[in-house]
Q: What sequence folds into this?
């Protein structure tokens, strides 16, 4: 299989983490895609140009970290990060999608900051910065939830990747002044799969 990524994308990082956590290094080639450039050969593989993108053993492609991570987790028939019982566990689903929305807001802010200064939207930047702080306040309380403490889950991985992206991309360290979140993130940062997939 081939997993197309960029090494700065938090969503592609989730796919890379699953490859490591599920010991799939011998089955999945991780390939750096050239995105956001005109006429990239990658667009012949994935016309949307987004990452991650997985081409499975049959040659079929799939896009989006949610489906790719679920697929990789299911290959051995023993999903660890996508427990089937969680599909209707609404308390868990709320945590996972809150973390995903937090991550998306951080990326919107980051993309806006990469625009030329005279093209940036101050209102978008302010909106996403405020959203990130509000969500960090929410997770300061919610990381104490057993669902965020016990065992592997996508909610935990997504939140850790989002917090790391914020710190690395100039958004700011969202664990500052939030001791529970800081302690939680410290423990997550010690995971070998988090360390091995850290952006350059």
A:
């Amino acid at each position: 299989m081939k997993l197309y990524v960029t090494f700065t994308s938090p969503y592609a990082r989730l796919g890379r983490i699953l490859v490591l956590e599920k010991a799939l290094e011998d089955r999945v080639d991780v390939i750096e895609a050239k995105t956001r450039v005109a006429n990239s050969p990658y667009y012949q593989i994935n016309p949307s140009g987004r990452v991650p993108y997985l081409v499975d053993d049959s040659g079929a492609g799939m896009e989006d970290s949610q489906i790719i991570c679920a697929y990789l987790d299911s290959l051995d028939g023993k999903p660890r990060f996508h427990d089937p019982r969680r599909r209707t566990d609404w308390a868990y689903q709320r945590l996972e999608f809150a973390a995903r929305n937090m991550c998306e807001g951080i990326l919107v802010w980051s993309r806006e900051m990469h625009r030329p200064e005279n093209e940036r939207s101050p209102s978008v930047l302010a909106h996403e910065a405020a959203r990130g702080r509000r969500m960090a306040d929410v997770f300061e309380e919610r990381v104490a939830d057993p669902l965020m403490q016990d065992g592997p889950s996508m909610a935990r991985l997504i939140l850790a990747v989002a917090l790391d992206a914020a710190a690395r991309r100039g958004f700011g360290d969202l664990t500052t002044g939030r001791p529970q979140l800081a302690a939680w993130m410290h423990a997550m940062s010690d995971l070998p799969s988090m360390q091995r997939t850290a952006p350059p």
